[in-house]
Structure of G10 protein:
Amino acid sequence: MPKIRTSRTKEPPSGFEDIESVLEDYAKQMRDAENEPHEGKRRTESLWPIMRISHSRSRYIYDLYYRQEGITKKLYDWLLKEGYADANLIAKWKKTGYEKLCCLRCIQTRDMNYQGSTCVCRVPKGQLRPGTVVECTHCGERYCD
């Protein structure tokens, strides 16, 4: 996850002031999550809040542009360029079958226990035994679908 650049070289496009307060709230949540103590947690568990905040910030920008049409193309491109949203994750959300993907690591086959498989959170709920709770080891999400 890239850091958000704080020193802007160019003035943001018009419309940024409308969403700036929401993006500042996400930045504040991110700082709190990064400074949260992680004693007693597994290494991956300490990253879960950061992954969730990054996901929700990217989903907010994606929804504003593609669903609500609340921002312009110029502002959307600027937000992606400045690192406010994950462009690769948004590119996957636009493809069929990946609309609810929680993170990009869940579809990478190299980090999985079994060669050539995907994350356990990508398994549909209907194919699991009743009462089984599945949690992704990468991002902590329960189910992508």
Summary: The mean pLDDT is 80. The chain has two domains: 16-94, 96-145. Residues 16-94 form one domain. The radius of gyration is 17 Å.
